[in-house]
Amino acid sequence: MSAVVDKLLALANPDAALLYLYVSKHGANIDPFPAMKTLRFTEARLKTAHTALVGAGLAVMANLPPFSQSGGDAIELSQRDGESGFQMLVEECQRRLQKILSTNDMQALSDIYHQMALPEDVIVLLLSYCMEETRVKNGPTRLPTMGQIRREAANWLALGIDCTAAAEAYLAAATEKRSIYSRLLPRLGITGRHPLKTEQEYLSRWYSWGFSDDAIVLAYERTLLKKQSMSWSYCNAILRNWEKKKLFTLAAVEEAERPAAADRTVEEDISWMREFISP
Fold first, then answer.
1. How far apart (Å, rounded) are the C-alpha atoms in residues 232 and 188?
2. Whose CA is closest to 58, among 100, 87, 84, 20?
3. Separation between Cα atoms, residue 167 and residue 204, nearest integer Å
4. Contacts by residues 242-249 (CB-CB < 8 Å, ≥ 24 positions apart)
5. How far, CA to CA in Å, does 240 sit from each of 74, 135, 193, 196, 236?
6. pLDDT in tens, 103-129
7. How far apart are CA 19 and CA 39, in angstroms?
8. C-alpha distances in angstroms, 88 versus 109, 118, 264?
9. Separation in Å, CA 208 to CA 29, 204, 222, 248
10. pTM of the model
11. Angle between the 213-227 and 232-244 helix axes, to the nearest 10 degrees?
């Protein structure tokens, strides 16, 4: 046993050590999909960990069967292993997407559940996110495909969104962005479409700087006066200048641009008296 421990320590690979413990409990012939679900490994992580064990002489390549699996196999796997969680996801997807999942759809869902190893509640949140994004971008009656949902799942995994808390935070941020777009875009002359990626990046930047809606609209109006059309880079330059001066609201900009008392005309200085001396 000490020799095995020495080999694992020499690998300095936590995934390999975790996989070795799994193999010790479940046997050398690994069924990859339950293993990925239990360890919360992606297919790539499981293969890398297994390869490390093989290199250290703690496993043999034959212990890891092929990963290829059809949608029909996914259904059979769920029934064979009593995977009520997977079957629940199948039923939930069919209910929300208003269709019976095809073989390719089942394959996509199986990839998300077995290979990407996202928890069931995270997959439900993922489904909600994809449906809302599709509705906003393409119309209220449009629904996402399972292929689109799988691609978004891969994106979530790359962003580290693999638990309920992270998924809920991501959805809350997405909801806030949609709220910003719905109230601000019409004031910037954009209607009837979702903002382009570059436009989203500018808006996110301006809000991260702390600007109010009215300040952004003022910068937009000044851009139109100068450029006769919307120039996002020019508008960004205006706001960048205000950001350096800590002018984040319409009131702050107007106050900063108001002429100093020494620069006012005599007419301006006595204007406050007019209401008292007017007939």
1. 11
2. 20
3. 19
4. 242/211, 242/215, 243/209, 243/210, 243/211, 247/215, 248/209, 248/210, 248/211, 248/212, 248/215, 249/211, 249/212, 249/214, 249/215
5. 53, 33, 26, 21, 6
6. 888 889 988 988 888 999 999 999 999
7. 8
8. 11, 14, 73
9. 51, 6, 21, 11
10. 0.58
11. 130
Q: Do 63 and 30 contact (CB within 8 A), yes or no?
A: yes
* Contact assessment for residue 152 and residue 126, using Cβ atoms and an 8 Å cutoff: yes
What's the token pair of residue 115?
Answer: 């290979």
Name the band, by pLDDT with cuts 50, 70 and 90, for residue 278.
very low
For 41, the token pair is: 């490994």
Q: What is the DSSP string of 38-103?
A: HHT--HHHHHHHHHHHHHTTSS-GGGS------HHHHHHHHHHTT-HHHHHHHHHHHHHHTS---H
C-alpha–C-alpha distance, residues 98 and 23, integer Å: 40
φ, ψ of residue 27 to 5 degrees: the values are: 105, 160
Name residue 115's amino acid: Q
